[in-house]
Design brief:
The chain contains 5 helices and 13 strands. It is α+β, with helices and mostly antiparallel strands. It folds into 2 domains: 78 residues, Elongation Factor Tu (Ef-tu), domain 3 (Beta Barrel); 91 residues, Elongation Factor Tu (Ef-tu), domain 3, CATH 2.40.30.20. It is globular and about 45 Å long. One of its GO terms (molecular function) is riboflavin synthase activity. Its EC number is 2.5.1.9. It comes from Lacrimispora xylanisolvens.
């Protein structure tokens, strides 16, 4: 499990593509304080396993499912990536629950400055947008962010200077793809309340809420 609080930006040193898979070699520094083979690392929000380690680099394998769900296919050697180790049991929970399992990708439509903040408007598929709510949480390339507004074509987030400077948001521009992971709560609610025919249907306030939300 991750929190969406990025520890550092690393560099993609090597990308080996197979027929439907890939192998990444990523360089960093901060995360190597205690990183061991077999540990989980969120790379641009995607949970990967460190298969080998060598001098501030680690290698991770990416399977077909991950490539099809994420923006990894657009990466090139030299690109910066957001890095976060799995949350320690005694760590602070500064963001929100992030699993590292990407729900889909989005595309940055615009980037604009608003005094000390920077607004990013991101277009996304309806399958992702259905779980996004105003003032809720969203992981964009693994970064825990608060949704400022949402409509039927996309959503907006407003980032403070520290977040922009400390992550790959500082390099993002209109047209760039991003990995998106929805907050788990909405997905679990839908599964528990609507997918099992042998369970009683929601009623009262719950039914009204789900109806207005498009469920």
């Amino acid at each position: 499990m991750f929190t969406g609080i990025i520890e550092e930006t690393g560099v993609l040193k090597e990308l080996k593509k197979g027929a439907q898979s890939a192998s990444l070699t990523i360089q960093g520094r901060v995360i190597f304080d205690d990183l061991a083979i077999g540990d989980s690392v969120a790379v641009n929000g995607v949970c990967l396993t460190a298969a080998s380690l060598s001098s501030y680099t680690f290698q991770a394998d990416v399977m077909h499912e991950t490539l099809s769900r994420s923006c990894f296919g657009t990466l090139h050697p030299g690109d910066f990536v957001n890095l976060e180790r799995a949350m320690a049991a005694d760590g602070r929970f500064g963001g929100h629950i992030v699993s590292g399992h990407i729900d889909g990708t989005g595309k940055i439509i615009s980037v604009r400055r608003d005094d000390n903040a920077i607004w990013y408007t991101i277009a996304a598929d309806s399958k992702v947008l259905r779980y996004i709510v105003e003032k809720g949480s969203i992981a964009v390339d693994g970064i825990s962010l608060t949704v400022a507004s949402v409509n039927n074509t996309g959503f907006c987030i407003s980032a403070i200077p520290h977040t922009v400077k400390s992550t790959t948001l500082s390099y993002k521009k209109a047209g760039d793809p991003v990995n998106l992971e929805n907050d788990l709560i909405g997905k679990y609610m839908e599964k528990f309340l609507l997918s099992s025919p042998d369970k009683p249907q929601p009623s009262g306030i719950t039914r009204e809420f789900l109806t207005k939300s498009g469920y």
